[in-house]
Amino acid sequence: MNNDFAKKFDENDEDQTITERDQIIYCGEPETVKQIVRTDYNDFSKQAKKSQNLKNFDEQYTDIVDYIVKITHKIWEEKSIGLIYNTYHNDVKMHFGSQSTYGVQAVVSGTLQTLYSFPDRKLVTQNVIWSENGNGYLSSHRIQSIATNLNDSSFGPVTNKKIEFRTTVECAVENNRIYEEWLVRDNLSICEQLGFDPHVIAKSMAANSPNRGLKKVKCFGLDENMNGQMVPEIYSAKDDSIGEYVLEMLSKIYNYRLFDQVKEFYTEQAVIHYICDQDLVGYTQIQGMLVNLFASFPSADYIVERVICNEDQESAETSVAVRWILTGLHEGLG
């Protein structure tokens, strides 16, 4: 049994029935919330029927999807910056690609800095995948942003260029407040669209890092997909659920590097929306993407932290959000 996905329990202890899988796979019922996929915000915002009982949430929100989409629109597009104080926990943890920040004031500051640089930013929701989580909720928000660089930014001097970029934001919410957030943004695409050299920008960001010059231990060991001399274990789905299917796929393809399995888990016409607004179509391009990625990190460990599934009974389709970490040493080409 793969320790990445399941706990080992004493077979004689009948009370030990909860597996780590229950902490990784979460499912929500899309028919209980407002639909945002292919729904214009003008139409979405007019749907007033309350479909979920959100404990200790503001009455104006009809369900968790409504909450996520509306606070995003109000904060960013209506410029209701102060709403952050009502919808984020005072000690909120924010995880970015290069650092983590803490506290609601950091959220306010980051929002203001971004809006200073891109004052007309529009955030178009493509999907919100969600589930219950204890007394609260988990959500994964996929966004397409359109913005014009009208002032200096963290990337460099003002360019007056209009750009588009993708962002994915996962939130843990309870009592009307986001208490932890994970954000991934295509900064490489932004940098190139603004006309800057990404290598120069990366060096500048590293030089200005708050951790620069600190005397501290930087490495406590090397993460690899192998455990010493033991080869990586392949996780096998425990049932025919979508969540288990996804865990097996990611284990085989991403952690064991069985790229031939792309043909088993993807359709021939599958499309991967990749960085810098690239669309990869079909087996050859998807396998090529995987080879290019792992050529740079050939021994890295691929760790799944969470899978959220929303199965639509009417369309027989399931939307899946996966939060994962690739950790290891850059020791190859690319």
Task: Give the topology, please.
Blueprint: H1 21-24, E1 25-28, H2 41-44, H3 64-76, H4 84-87, E2 88-95, E3 100-102, H5 104-117, E4 122-133, E5 136-148, E6 162-174, E7 177-185, H6 187-193, H7 198-207, H8 242-255, H9 262-265, E8 271-274, E9 278-281, H10 282-296, E10 301-312, E11 317-327
Parallel strand pairs: 1-10, 2-7
Antiparallel strand pairs: 2-3, 4-5, 5-6, 6-7, 8-9, 10-11
List key phrases describing it:
globular, disordered N terminus, alpha+beta, Nuclear Transport Factor 2, Chain: A, 27% helix, 10 helices, 11 strands, 3-stranded mixed sheet, 6-stranded mixed sheet, 334 residues
Describe the structure.
The protein is an alpha+beta fold. Helix content is 27%, strand content 28%. The protein is built from 10 helices and 11 strands. The chain has helices at 21-24, 41-44, 64-76, 84-87, 104-117, 187-193, 198-207, 242-255, 262-265, 282-296, and strands at residues 25-28, 88-95, 100-102, 122-133, 136-148, 162-174, 177-185, 271-274, 278-281, 301-312, 317-327. The strands form 3 sheets. The protein has a 6-stranded mixed sheet. A 3-stranded mixed sheet has the order 1-10-11.
Order of helices and strands: HEHHHEEHEEEEHHHHEEHEE
Instruction: List low-pLDDT spans.
Output: 1-21
Give me the Rg, rounded: 21 Å
Q: Give the total of domains.
A: 2
The mean pLDDT is 90
Largest sheet: 6 strands, mixed
N-to-C span: 34 Å
What would you call the structural class? alpha+beta
- The CATH topology of the largest domain: Nuclear Transport Factor 2, Chain: A
Strand content is 25-35%
Under the CATH scheme, the architecture of the largest domain is: Roll
Number of helical elements: 10
Q: What's the count of strands?
A: 11
The strands making up the biggest β-sheet line up spatially as 3-2-7-6-5-4
Overall outline: globular
Residue share in helix:
25-40%
Q: What's the CATH class of the largest domain, please? A: Alpha Beta
